[in-house]
Structures are given as structure tokens and as C-alpha cells.
Amino acid sequence: MKESTIQWEHSHDFGVDSAQNKSKVKIVFWLTTIIMVLEIAAGTWSGSMALLADGWHMGTHSAAFLIAIFAYSYAKKNANNKTFSFGTGKVNYLGGFASAIALAIVALLMILESVQRIIEPNNIHFNEAIIVAVVGLIVNIVSAFILKDDHHHHDHHGDSDHHHDHDHNMKAAYLHVLADALTSVLAIVALLTGKYMGIIWIDPVMGIVGAIVILHWSYGLIKESSTVLLDKSVDVSTFEKISQTLDKRNTIINDIHVWKIASTHQAAILSVSSQSPLSTEEYKKILSESLPQLSHVSVEINKI
């Protein structure tokens, strides 16, 4: 097949190109994944539902890190692929939606297993399970320190969308790690309570708590990603601001469509009317000055 010679007037690359960020997320991904496998294996062998829940909860965030890494790579690889009309910014949301569905199913299975453990208690190897849970907590703390610097920086570098997107991704990763640390603490509390106080049922109860945390996180990801995939993610205030901006230029909006094409990028198609209309480029300029997130704007102009 002959390669296309069509050239765009502007870039459709709305991804974040940060090798340093990607490298840090990779480190945390591998740390999280290794501990996830260790906790799931140890939880299954020791009979601890709390440890098993912690392992699967780490799995939810490991999946999130993997999706972020994939999105970085895929978006960069296809940045100039003409078959993606508005770039590859939605890759992250598509992957997130798919993984969230799978994780919600895992959480439901964990709840069923925990309820069964409450009805029919199993023997738990507390010492081994506690050691693994503590190791998991330590890894979460180390991961938080790896991501902490990037979580707090870059707000002072200007108004570039890339900097804001960069900060958003790292903040999300940072919060994922903190959530993992919390579930590790819950697992340790459950295991210590079971060992020293003999309250065995607290372990499967914590398993249920962990599963509910996973369900809550999965629901949030499904809700966020589905609204973007269905082009329902733009706030009403955005439409109001566009209307107010054009109203100052004595321009009437006949039709408008605005949707998200990446985490901090939006596209807009407008049909406008005016007695003294501006040029297409002038409309694009005033809209981009008012709403910097509008990375792709098309305007149809009608003279009254």
C-alpha cells in the first residue's frame, strides 16, 4: 500500500512526552507487580483473605500503571498516524475501562470467597502472612517517595498543557500508591488481631473491605473513562465560557460540539453567525486564549 503524503497543518500529538516520568512509573510498576504476585501467592497459601485482598488491590494499581506506560508508548508511536483523526489521547481511557471491568469482577469473586471464609473459617499462617504484608507496606512507602517529587513540581513552569498533564498523571500514580499503603495497613491490622487476639473472622472481613475499595476504585474509573469514550466529559461551564467569549465579539453560536480527546485536551466544532464576522484564525485565537485546553478547533462562519 502506498504511503500517504497528506500533511497536517498542526500536530495531533496530544500525549505527554516525558522519558523521566515514564521511567519512574516503570520502576513503581515493577515494584508493585512483584509485591502483588508475592501477596496473592502468600495470601492463597496462608489462607489470609486480608492479604489476598491487599494483593489484588495492588493489582488494580499495577494495571493502572501499565495502562499509563502503554498510553505513553502507543501515543508517541502513533503521534503522526493519519488514521487517528484526533490523535491517540483516548487510548488510556479505553484501556482503563477494560481493566476496570475485569477488576470489578475480581472484587465480586473476593467478596464471595470472604463470605464463605466467615461461614467456614480456615486456618491462617499468621507469621508468614504478616511478614509479606509488612514487606508490601515498605514497598508502597518507597514507591511513594519515588513519585513524590514529580507529584509536587511543575506548576510554576508556565501554562503549557504538557506540564499540567504531566502533573495530573504523576498525582494519580502517587495517590494509587498511598491507597495501596492503606490496604497494606488494614491487612497487617487484621493479621495481628487474628494472631494475638484470636479473632479469626476479622481477616475475611478485611478481605471484604479490600474488595469494596477495589469496587469503588473500579466504579470511579469506569465512570470517568466511559464519559470520555462517549464524548460526555466536557463540563457545562466550558460551553458557557465559549458562548460568553463569542458574545463579546457579537457572534451567535448556531451549533457547537466540544469533547475531550486527551486528559487535558479538547476539540471543538462550531457554526457561528455575525454581521461582521472575524476570520477563522481570529476565532481560533480568541477561543484558545480563553480556553487553553481547546487544542483542536474548527469554525464554520456565516454572515448575517
UniProtKB/TrEMBL annotation:
It is a multi-pass membrane protein. Its main location: membrane. The chain crosses the membrane at residues 27-46, 58-75, 91-112, 124-147, 173-193, 199-222. Keywords: Ion transport, Membrane, Transmembrane, Transmembrane helix, Transport, Zinc, Zinc transport. It is found in: Membrane. InterPro entries: Cation_efflux, Cation_efflux_TM, Cation_efflux_TMD_sf, Msc2-like. Residues 26-230 form the Cation efflux protein transmembrane domain. Gene3D superfamilies: Cation efflux protein transmembrane domain (1.20.1510.10). NCBIfam families: CDF (TIGR01297), CDF_efflux_DmeF (NF033827). This is CDF family Co(II)/Ni(II) efflux transporter DmeF. It comes from Psychrobacter namhaensis.
